[in-house]
Specification:
Blueprint lengths: L1 H15 L1 H13 L8 H13 L3 E4 L9 E6 L6 E6 L13 H18 L6 E6 L8 H7 L8 E3 L2 E3 L10 E10 L3 E2 L10 H15 L8 E8 L6 E2 L2 E10 L2 H22 L2 E6 L10 H13 L18 H5 L4 E2 L2 E3 L8 H6 L3 H22 L2 H16 L1
Parallel strand pairs: 3-4, 3-5, 5-13, 6-14
Antiparallel strand pairs: 1-2, 2-4, 7-11, 7-12, 8-10, 9-11
Helix pairs in contact: 1-4, 1-11, 2-4, 4-11, 6-7, 8-11
């Protein structure tokens, strides 16, 4: 059958250029760049896409000069399928979240589709989304409408387990500055108002409210500035918090209780505070129609999927904001036993097993996109499911 032949051609095309995609992934891995600074990775990915015949546009919005979109249109109209590329790294750890694999797999899947099935009906779109680790690049792009034209969006994340349906929590960063009044800690402490005491009391109060919040909620915090000298009552201290919850609606309630706890603590000390919030990462709406097709294609290339329930260890990602706009999946491919955001995972994302995961994720992405291009029924089913989930 033509479909089976085309899918075989896609797999063979990815294998034929395996060394090319491995080299690209390793080059990005060996030159890690932090969020908003991914200039080299962006150039390497877009240069490759241009060579493959894609029309490339860079710097989609002024705030994200390292963002891009690359498009290729088949000879006939059809769905618009987005493959999402990430390529930022973590401070001190490098590519401990495997974005070198994520970015390369999106590009290799797109190129394989175009080259193996040149009469593909529709448009392949690779969207380069910087600043996933810090800043929420996808949120910024979503607010400017860069995902609105897609019929479906996909990416694949390396991990210690192959899954297709794992979700993510809503979250927001909150930076607090505590304001007091300085004084000599020994000579005249009564004249001072300790910003540090206000901050410490806030940490205690926040910890105490957690049992009263939704079971999915969590609040993490660190002190980023705690004073300058032990014999001086500090008038300025700073802390950063990350608030999480199952949904954005629940997150709003967590924020309210958080600010009440901080406000009461600060008032008790006689200090004051100011707050600055980051962008809100929405929860992920997993599209089961797309996930099931992705799993089918993984199993078709010999990859076992483990979607048994995970009750803990769920994080957040700005792909959740994309899933609020368009049917989206964010499956995971196993590349070893190490967990993300560790030095061990940094090594895994350049290992032989990591490059095997790159090959597998590229194939599953390309094959699932092909299924969407060739089945209007599958696209409509994914959209119907998304509309139902969005209305709940």
């Amino acid at each position: 059958m033509k479909m089976e032949r085309n899918k075989s051609n896609i797999v063979e095309e990815i294998d034929r250029h395996k060394e090319k995609w491995t080299a690209l992934s390793l080059k990005i891995h060996d030159h890690p760049e932090l969020s908003f600074q991914e200039y080299q990775a962006m150039e390497w990915l877009t240069d490759t896409l241009s060579e493959e015949g894609f029309r490339v546009q860079k710097a989609l919005i002024p705030a994200l000069p390292t963002s891009f979109i690359a498009e290729w249109e088949g000879p006939e109209d059809g769905p618009v399928i987005g493959l999402i590329a990430e390529y930022d790294a973590l401070a001190e750890l490098g590519h401990a979240c495997g974005h070198n694999i994520i970015g390369t797999s999106a590009v290799s899947a797109a190129a394989a589709l175009k080259n193996a099935v040149p009469d593909l009906p529709g448009k392949i779109v690779v969207i380069g989304t910087p600043a996933e680790e810090e800043g929420g690049g996808k949120i910024m792009l979503a607010e400017e409408g860069w995902f609105d034209a897609l019929d479906a969006a996909m990416m694949c994340h390396p991990r210690d387990r192959t899954m297709t349906l794992r979700g993510s929590l809503a979250c927001v960063d909150v930076d607090l500055v505590f304001h007091g009044r300085t004084a000599h800690a020994a000579a005249n402490p009564e004249r001072g108002i300790s910003a540090l005491d206000a901050m410490i009391q806030s940490f205690v109060a926040v910890k105490q409210i957690l049992p009263a919040l939704h079971h999915s909620a969590n609040i993490h915090g660190i002190i980023t500035q705690g004073g300058e000298a032990t014999n001086v009552i500090p008038d300025h201290c700073e802390a950063s918090f990350l608030l999480r919850a199952k949904t954005t609606e629940e997150l709003s309630r967590v924020k309210q209780r958080f600010y009440e706890a901080v406000g009461g603590s600060v008032q008790a000390i006689g200090a004051s505070y100011s707050a600055e919030e980051g962008l809100t990462y929405a929860e992920r709406i997993n599209n089961h129609t797309l996930a099931k097709q992705f799993q089918h294609n993984l199993e078709g290339i010999g990859v076992e999927v483990d979607d048994s329930e995970i009750k803990q260890g769920i994080g957040s990602s700005d792909i959740g904001n994309v899933s609020q706009i368009v049917p989206t999946i964010h499956p995971y491919i196993k590349i070893g036993e190490a967990v993300t955001h560790t030095h061990a995972f940094t090594e895994a994302t350049r290992s032989e097993k990591g490059m095997e995961g790159l090959n597998q994720s590229s194939k599953a992405l390309a094959l699932t996109a092909y299924d969407l291009f060739t089945s209007r029924e599958l696209v409509d089913k994914a959209k119907a499911e998304w509309r139902q989930a969005d209305s709940n």
